[in-house]
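#struct-queue
[09:14] JT: dropping the first one here, sequence first, then the structure tokens:
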Amino acid sequence: MKNKISMNNTKMNQKEKLMGFAYVFLMFAGISAVCCLLLFYYNSDFLVFTQKDFAVTKMNRMKEYQVSQSRAAASVDSLFNKINRFQPMVNAVYEENDITFMINELANNYEQHAWDARYKSFSHVSLFYTMWFSDKRELWSKRDNIIRIKKNLEDCEIGLKNKKNDLTLSSRR
């Protein structure tokens, strides 16, 4: 009987040893995981990878801006030439529409990238060309009105001279 009791205690001890081993192993794994997490999370070498990703993203955005800027440069040059050659006295609605379309396309380049302050220059350039275009049309309209008023004044002066001549001729008779 004593033999049975000692065998029972041995089995119990093996179960306790197994449970103790599992407990210690789980504690070791948990503490190791927390330490590794803290080590890698706060380690500056680990943050270098995110800084590199940020630098790569920033470089890609700079490249995208340069491409957009080079595409817009050709558009800005042709827009400048079109507005400079624009003559409002020639009734060319298609040319006005083309200029307006190009100005809106330039402004749209900013609206698509409004989060980036560098694209604000596209908005400023489009506003400048819009003002220049409208000023050119308004200036032509005012000059045309002045020419028309001068012509009407000359016609009135000629008519007044003719009436004076008619009056002096009729008073002599």
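[09:21] JT: and here's the second one, same format:
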Amino acid sequence: MDFVHGYVYARWPYAYIGLAKGDRKAPALLRPLVAGVGKLLFRSGDDPAVARQAFAARYHGKVLPTSAAEQWVTLDQPIELHDLEQIIPFATARDLILADPDHIAVLDCPCRAGVENPCLPLDVCMIIGEPFVQFILDHHPDHARRISQEEAVEVLRAEHKRGHVHHAFFKDAMLGRFYAICNCCSCCCGAMQAHRNGTPMLISSGYIASANDDACIGCGRCAEVCPFDAISMANGIAHVDEAACMGCGVCVTVCAQGALALRRAPERGEPLDVSSLQTGS
């Protein structure tokens, strides 16, 4: 079943994600196939809360600050790590196995493509390593292209400047492991919308934003751009809701006063930091 699920997901991602989000009609011939996979995986009789937990266990994203995301797209050797409980707190889809890590493709974002007036550009979903990259290039030549590691870094930095969040995505049907870094906007992204609606499919970076009250001038820019609505303004200064903060670092970048910084939050799990994982520290 996982093979069929993975093939359907990777072969027809626009139909799969469009149907999941409910904002795009899949081609008539594909709707029964995609819907059938969903029914097999998530029985309609399940309690909604149980179904949401089951979905998150199969398909989830780990928030990455830009510096961490850049590490993953500039790897120069294969990496294989298993059972990352402290980093990916799910029973499935938590392995890091990257063959040919310098093989990277950008795919037109299925979430953005299904929205009437999407955020641009569309080509911001990065598929990393084999066999995923070649499959995407073979089956989506009009929506995907191979890029260099240097180009991948440029995509990450440009998306961060736009206020978008890097997520490393893991999926059980994608060989139970990491396969992509998506650059997500809160208005189009199905994963962020699902997370807001109670499906716990996004995992904190392991950091939270911390505000320096003495440096804050109350401009409110950080609250405007926070993708997770974790910052509010009160009494002329920024306040961070630590429970809502996912440690993406978008607010840190826009604060001209340097009043915000990311700090480690051990209670939010371990960062997906390639340098520490490779050294075992």
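[09:30] RK: nice, looked through the second one.
[09:31] RK: The CA atoms of residues 1 and 173 lie 9 Å apart.
[09:31] JT: good to know. The longest strand covers residues 96-108.
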